[in-house]
Write a structure and sequence with these properties.
The protein has about 350 residues and is mainly beta. A hairpin with an 8-residue loop joins strand 2 and strand 3. Helices cover about 10% and strands about 50% of the residues. About 15% of the residues have low confidence.
Length: about 350
């Protein structure tokens, strides 16, 4: 087993441990009277009964009662100092029997919204092929300094359900596109070596702490003209993938997510093969912290059939600033990547990169 495979295997073990510990982490979540708890995989939410202290208690110690969200849902409104979050304007009153006596009705979740300003499924922070705007200045252990840049984004086209960053139940259609380019600043005129172009459309849905996405994307790789002139013996490949994908993200806590994704190419060329897997975890505080910002950390593993599922591991950590209304992030930090080349034009090359960057995420 190669060193890269060993590192990826170790990451898989850590990731599985995180999933195994998710329920334990949830049990230690701090709650107060009236908090509504959304459980996993479609189970009915529950409301926390009276807690003896104003500061609250852990979820494991709290007494909860089930709530019928169809007949007696709580009304939602934006938090005044953080419009990106939702709090419950009125909680169902819980009688001694455990049934709610509040018959208030929430705003309809069947409304249509054109061009919603927020997303239900966000880009993976350490995903090296995600649509964003950014520049990574990285030192290659074999070649010296390289610039890996991204110019793109993801937008919502149509939503059915509540607006906001964390609706109780909504789905929408997203459009994404990005050009991922590599420049070699050490050479005269800083030639463009290669660019991967990606475009896609996805259906996304959020239900409580779980978000889903399913869709299609096309990616194709192109060598730069100057690079081909400087390397006349280089034989470019026509790397192409037309893939279906499905992904799930789970909020272990409001600030910690774990996710997994599978892609299958219906059409592939230039050395590409059908299957790919992506999974990881990330810590990014959800609240708006103003100009002072807050730390973030993320790990992503991307395994691809065409390189015997060797893929690569990408680690990022640094500081982030968040817009409370849209959920968009501005990040600066450090980056470490180890595995097969980030640029698909150099499919079989091994890379070990370390450096820093700035990224704007949707």
């Amino acid at each position: 087993m190669s060193a890269t495979h060993s590192r990826i295997a170790a990451t898989v073990v850590v990731f599985c441990s995180l999933l195994w510990g998710a329920n334990a982490a949830r049990a230690q979540t701090w709650v107060r009277s009236g908090d509504v708890i959304f459980d996993t995989f479609g189970e009915a939410p529950s409301v926390v009964a009276a807690v003896p202290t104003q500061s609250g208690t852990t979820l494991a110690s709290a007494e909860t009662f089930p709530v019928d969200m169809e007949s007696e849902p709580p009304r939602l409104r934006p938090v005044a100092d953080d419009a990106g979050l939702l709090e419950f304007d009125s909680f169902p009153s819980v009688a001694a029997t455990g049934r709610s006596t509040d018959t208030s009705v929430a705003s309809s979740s069947s409304e249509w919204h054109l061009l919603p300003g927020t997303l239900l499924y966000h880009s993976y922070l350490a995903g090296e092929k995600e649509p964003r705007i950014g520049l990574s200045v990285l030192s290659d252990s074999k070649r010296g300094w390289l610039w890996e840049s991204a110019l793109g984004g993801r937008v919502g086209l149509l939503r059915r359900g509540d607006l906001g960053l964390s609706p109780a139940n909504a789905w929408q259609i997203d459009l994404e596109g990005v050009a991922l380019a590599r420049v070699n600043p050490a050479m005269e005129s800083a030639p463009l070596e290669a660019t991967d172009y990606r475009v896609g459309m996805q259906w996304t849905k959020r239900t409580g702490p779980i978000a889903y996405k399913a869709g299609y994307y096309h990616v194709s790789s192109h060598a730069g003209d100057e690079y081909l002139e400087l390397n006349p013996g280089f034989r470019r490949i026509n790397y192409v993938r037309d893939s279906l994908l499905f992904g799930v993200t789970r909020d272990v806590t409001p600030d910690v997510q774990v996710y997994g994704e599978i892609g299958y190419a219906l059409g592939a060329d230039g050395g590409a093969e059908p299957l790919e897997f992506q999974f990881g975890t990330q810590y990014v505080p959800i609240r708006d912290t103003g100009l002072r910002g807050a730390p973030f950390a993320a790990v992503n593993v991307h395994l691809r059939q065409e390189v015997d599922f060797g893929g690569g591991i990408n680690v990022m950590a640094g500081w982030r600033w968040r817009n409370a209304e849209t959920g968009r992030l501005l990040r600066v930090g450090l980056q470490y990547y180890n595995g097969k080349s980030i640029q698909y034009e150099f499919l079989d090359e091994d890379q070990q990169l370390i450096g820093y960057g700035i990224w704007f995420d949707y």
